[in-house]
Structure formats: structure tokens, C-alpha cells
Amino acid sequence: MDQLSNLITGFGDVFTLNNLLFVLVGALLGTAVGVLPGLGSAMAVALLLPLTASLNPLGALAMFAGVYFGGLFGDSIAGILMNTPGNSTAIASSLEGHRMARSGRAPQALATAAIGAFLGGIIATVLVVFFAPAMADAATRFGPAEFFALAVFAFVAISTVVSDSAVRGLAGLAIGLAIAMVGIDQPTGTERLTFGVRTLFDGIDIVVITVALLALGEVIYQASRIGRPDEAQLLSSGGRPFLSRGEFRQALPAWLRGTGFGVPFGVIPAGGAEVPTFLSYGAERTLARRRKDSQFGKGAIEGVAGPEAAGNATAGTAMGALLALGLPTSATAAVLLIAFRQYGMQPGPLLFERNGEIVWALLASLFIAMVVLLILNLPMAPLWANLLKVPKAYLYAGIALLAAFGVYVAASSVTDLLIMLALGLLGFVMRRYDVPIAPVLIAVILGPLAEYSLRDAMVNSGNDPMVLISSPITIVLYTVLIAGVVWAVIRRRRTVSADF
Asked: In 3-state terms, what secondary structure has residue 341?
């Protein structure tokens, strides 16, 4: 079993005082940022990108491992205690979790979320350990046409299938592709969207883009809302931070079912864990109707357990898709892809061969991060809730300062700060009109890959467009994509009909 021996070697690399400290700091930062409404693990990673540029790759990626899962659990704390989920991935678990909190069972809801996050993440990461190398081997069969199909699949799936509005999703995709085109076209040497500004000849730094859209855009949006009454009320979370034997037995099947929903969605470019978490919630609610003692609507523990496990299972297998295929299936995965590139590593089929030691150490860091988060969050979840009492004016001013400092330190460029401000205003407008950020990030990252793959495919085939659909892999990808779009259209029409 080469995977097990490689993983053991990875644990040996991570088990140093510095690396374990990086995992702990990442877990703390991820949870802290995730607790705050409107933020999340994607923003936490984005803020850390410029600040970790001086760290060694293993230390930085170990920290990101803690942030990756810590942000997901932090999202749920705000949702359970205030009914204001830190991110959309925590909405489903907040429905019953907040009802449990209102009935005096907040500690049990938080414990259910923590254990569910742990189980879902652990099971998914185990699957990644055994199957990611096989996925990478299969991906070596990909040529230019297959990579172009994969990029198109990600573009359309995230923009239309998952977004509430296909128009807004496509608008975000167009914005991302436009930003990706800024600079000099390498094959022809032609300037594109530079407007004669020399500093734009090399394009816009991806770190500047992510920090501006995720962090500064949210800061400006929150600043525009300061002074408005906040209707959310923070509920008390004192009490036993663990589950009784009966509660554990009640939650265990839901944790396993939720993991089953989340695992396959991690390798689908669905923009995050919203779909599997709601599928899990719907399944638990349907099963509960068959029981006479159903607590759904009053605070059902299964309604927290299933979605929480589904969300973390999706995050776990999303890491596998990122490492093996170079395919970011969510906004957080897209930012992590930038982190890899920052250290000269390109996730994809050759990553396990070229940077195998780092990859296996990262996978080991994920296991350690989940154990650390479980130990921290079972007793400390009520303490994290105190972050919700920090005045927003001070909180978001600090985030803006950290974002500006990080961007400036990365390249010592005032121009980058001006570009960050401009993109931050763009992020505010997008936030104001509900244009999703995920399609923008995916387009910025995969846009160049799609362009180069399309050019290579056409050149190698003598400009024959049929080469784009000539292999079984491309046919399968496009077929699944068309089926997903048709399903999304039918679902929306049913939703509109039900409203009327």
C-alpha cells in the first residue's frame, strides 16, 4: 500500500514543532474568521496568501489546512447561535441548529456540528488518500481538448447550475474572464485591456484579485450597512459541550448519510457545499416524517448532523479534485490553488510526481487539523461566539488594514494597492447586486488554461473543431454538463410554479 507508506512519511514531515504550530494557528484563524457573518474560509486563506509568502511551502500549506476546515465550523457557530450563518454552506445546518439553541440546547447543537464536521472530513480525506493518486494517473490521459472541456464544465456548472440566477452567474464569469485577459498575450505579444498602462503588461496579480474581491469588497459592503439595526440576537451557549449516548446514537446515522451526500459533490464544480448540505437536510427531514417523535421544526439533531457532515465531506474530496486534477470546485479551493502556484507548484496530474513530499505532508496536515479542531471546538465553541460582539466598525477596519498591508508587502507596489481598491469597489457592487464571487475566481484561474488548451487543440488538429468532442472524456463531460443545465432549468421552473 504505497498510499499508506507515503501518508506515514507525510506525518513524519509534519510532526515538527513549527508545522504543528502552523496547523494550530490556521485552525484558530479559520474558526475565528468563519464565525463572523459574511466572511469564511475563502477570505481567511486570501488574507493569509500575501502574509505567508516568506514561509516555507510546507509550513504555509499546513496553516492553510487548518484554515480550510476551521472556516467551515466557524460558519456554523454563527448560524446556530445567531441564525446568521457565516457562509452559505452553513445555512442548512442552521435551520434546526438555531431552533435547538432557542430551546436551550445550544451546546448540543454545537457539539453535533463539531463531531459531524470531524467525521465527514476524516472519511472524505481517507478517500482522497486512496483515490487521488489514481485520479491523477487517469488525468495524465488528458490532452488540450480534455482540459478545455474540463474548464468549460467548471465555468458553466458554477455559473448556471449552482447560482440562484443564471444571468448573475454568467455576469460573474464574464467579469472573471475579462480580468484574466488583462496583460500581454504570450503567443502574439498583443496588449489586451492594459489601456497603455505598463504595470498591467504582466496582468493583475491573482493575490490582489482575491484579496480585493473577497475581503475589501465585503468590508465596503459592511461599511455601507453600519448604523442599520441588527435583528439577530446572540443566544447563550453555556452547558455541557458533549452529547449523551442517546443523542450520539440519534446523530450517527445522519452523520454517515450526510457524508455520503457530500463526498461525490467535492469533485463536481458546484461552487461549494450548498447543494449537498440541502440535499442532506431534505433527506433527514423526509426520513423524520416516518417517525412519530420527529423533532423537525423544533430542533432536530439530525437536521444539524447531516448537513454539517455533508459540508465537510465535500470540502475533503474537493481537496482531492484540486490536487489530482488541478480543478478548483469552490471559491476556497480556487484560492488554495493560488497558494500552490505561489510556491511554484501546479496541482494536477504531475503534482504527485514532482512535489509528492509536499502533497502527502499536506494530506497529513488535514488529518491533524481536523483532530485539532475537534479538541478545540467542543469546549471552546461558546468562546468563539464572543467574536460576534466585536463592533463591526473596528472589526472590518482591521480587516481592511490587514488586506492592504498584505498586498503591499507582497510586491511593495502602490499600483497594486490602487488596483485592489478598484477591484474592491467592484466586489462591493457585486455583493450589492448578488453577483456571485465564485464564478469570477474560477474564471480568473481557469481562463488562461481554457484559452491555451483551446489554441493547442485547434493548432494540433488543423483548426478542426470536431477535435473538441472527439474523445470519450470530452463526450462524458459535455453530456454531464448538458444534463446538469437541463436539471437546473427544470428545478427553477418548478420553483417558480410553486411560488404562484
From this structure: helix
pLDDT at 416: 84
Q: What is the DSSP string of 140-194?
A: TT--HHHHHHHHHHHHHIIIIIISS-HHHHHHHHHHHHHHHT-EE-TTT--EES-
Give the pLDDT confidence of 488-498 residue by residue, as tens digits: 777 667 665 55
pLDDT in tens, 432-443: 888 888 788 878
Classify 86 as helix, strand or coil.
coil
Sign, Cα dihedral of 187, 192, 198, 202? negative
- In the numeric block, the cell 514543532 is attached to 17
From residue 102, give the alpha-carbon distance in Å to each of 18, 106, 112, 294, 495.
Answer: 41, 7, 16, 17, 30
Average pLDDT of the segment spanning 66-77? 80
DSSP assignment, residue 234? P
| Strand, helix or coil for residue 271 | strand
Please report, as a single letter, which amino acid is at residue 450.
Answer: A
Q: How far is CA 427 from the centre of its chain?
A: 18
* Three-class secondary structure of residue 330 per DSSP: strand
How far apart (Å, rounded) are the C-alpha atoms in residues 333 and 443? 13
What span, in angstroms and rounded, lies between the C-alpha atoms of 57 and 498?
A: 51
**Grid cell at residue 390:** 466585536
What pLDDT does 181 receive?
Answer: 87
- Of 226-240, 394-408, 428-442, 485-499, the one with minimum mean pLDDT is 226-240
* Listed residue (51, 33, 54, 32) closest to 42, CA to CA: 33
- For 311-331, write each residue's pLDDT tens digit: 888 888 888 888 887 877 777
pLDDT of residue 288: 77
Size (the chain), residues: 500
Under DSSP, is residue 362 helix (H, G, I), strand (E, B) or coil?
Answer: helix
d(CA 27, CA 35): 12
* Neighbouring-strand partners of residue 191: 184
Check the CA dihedral 395-396-401-404 and report its sign.
positive
pTM for this one? 0.73
d(CA 393, CA 401): 12
DSSP assigned state of 434: T
* 99-149: pLDDT as tens digits: 888 777 778 888 888 888 899 989 999 988 888 887 777 766 778 888 888
Burial of 287 (0-12, 13-18, 19+ CB in 10 A): middle
Q: What whole-number distance in Å separates Cα of residue 500 and Cα of residue 496?
A: 7
- Work out the number of other CB atoms within 10 angstroms of the CB of residue 366: 27
d(CA 270, CA 273) in angstroms, rounded, equals 8
